[in-house]
């Protein structure tokens, strides 16, 4: 039972809907909306209170692409948290390849940097009690039907993961769509490594699947955005089956991930092979590199090369 939950990127989309669903559970006593923008967070808080009839929402301001911002936010958290949902991220948009002060590009920093620091600091200060859910994507094992190739690294060494995080792995033309799967692979392996290092806390990875009602298409290149919003999502995906679901369904994966004992620590759950919605399964059953503990450790080490203590 999780009485207190922190959700990053909670002012919109999946994060906000996850907060709404969790607030409808009687056992939930506090939900921290971890957001970058105070004004947007306030609007989301008010809306959630009106939708749920509960006043259990608190705001924590922090930018997950900024290490110091996250550390300051953790310092202001006074009581231990039962569960953390690392939801903020996505393909970022036009600035995905831009270098941040950490040395990671913005895509990696937004999806990984602040989340790792958030968890590290919460653990260090004994403010994390039960479960961490990291968000990944079917882009890691790939979806053949859509031409999404699985992540395929040569060595999965510390150096190769480092190159993914600073962007040099992808050469001179940085493609955020391609890089996204590799960045999610790194954060997935980090979470699996943390599950081994912290056996008394559940660390799981969950993909929300191909979820409608989010701003994800807006982060894509213009041509791809047009095709996805006007053709693929409304026409092609529904015809194929198993390729798209509603926002409420994607968020429920997160709610179940932290609440349901069927979901075990050290596992990456996402749609069945070749699908983007429907039942979730252990991805390591067909994407076997997830089981490699050396790869997990190397991803963890690579991330911490960019974190200054």
The rounded distance between the terminal residues' Cα atoms is 33 Å
Strand percentage lies at: 5-15%
Tell me the Rg in angstroms.
18 Å
Largest sheet: 8 strands, mixed
Strand order of the largest sheet: 3-2-1-4-5-6-7-8
Poorly predicted runs are: 223-233
The general outline is: globular
User: Average pLDDT across residues?
Assistant: 90
Helix content: 40-55%
Topology order in helix (H) and strand (E) letters: EHEHEHEHEHHEHHEEH
* Number of E-type strands: 8
Number of helix segments?
9
Structural class: alpha/beta
Mind explaining what this structure looks like?
The chain is an alpha/beta fold and 309 residues long. The protein has nine helices and eight strands. An eight-stranded mixed β-sheet has the order 3-2-1-4-5-6-7-8, sandwiched between helices. Helix 6 crosses helix 9.
């Amino acid at each position: 039972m999780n009485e207190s939950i922190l959700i990053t990127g909670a002012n919109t989309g999946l994060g906000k809907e996850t907060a709404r669903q969790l607030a409808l559970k009687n056992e939930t006593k506090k939900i921290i909306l971890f957001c970058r923008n105070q004004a947007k967070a306030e609007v989301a808080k008010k809306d959630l209170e009106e939708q749920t009839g509960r006043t259990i929402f608190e705001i924590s301001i922090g930018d997950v692409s900024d290490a110091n911002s996250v550390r300051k936010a953790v310092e202001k958290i006074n009581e231990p948290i039962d569960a953390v949902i690392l939801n903020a991220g996505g393909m970022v948009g036009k600035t995905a390849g831009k270098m941040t002060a950490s040395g990671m590009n913005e895509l990696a920093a937004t999806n990984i940097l602040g989340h790792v620091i958030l968890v590290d600091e919460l653990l260090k200060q004994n403010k994390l009690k039960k479960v961490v859910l990291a968000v990944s994507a079917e882009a890691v094992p790939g979806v053949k039907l859509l031409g999404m190739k699985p992540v395929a690294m040569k060595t999965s060494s510390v150096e190769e993961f480092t190159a993914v995080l600073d962007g040099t792995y992808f050469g001179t033309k940085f493609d955020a769509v391609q890089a996204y799967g590799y960045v999610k692979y790194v954060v997935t392996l980090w979470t699996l490594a943390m599950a081994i290092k912290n056996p008394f806390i559940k660390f799981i990875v969950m993909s929300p699947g191909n979820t409608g009602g989010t701003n994800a298409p807006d982060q894509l290149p213009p041509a791809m955005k047009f095709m996805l919003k006007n053709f693929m999502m409304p026409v092609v995906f529904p015809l194929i089956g198993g390729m798209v679901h509603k926002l409420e369904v994607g968020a429920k994966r997160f709610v179940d991930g932290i609440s349901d004992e069927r979901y075990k620590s050290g596992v990456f759950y996402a749609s069945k092979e070749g699908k983007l919605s429907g039942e979730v399964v252990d991805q390591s059953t067909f994407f076997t590199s997830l089981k490699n503990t050396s790869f997990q450790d190397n991803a963890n080490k690579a991330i911490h090369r960019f974190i200054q203590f």
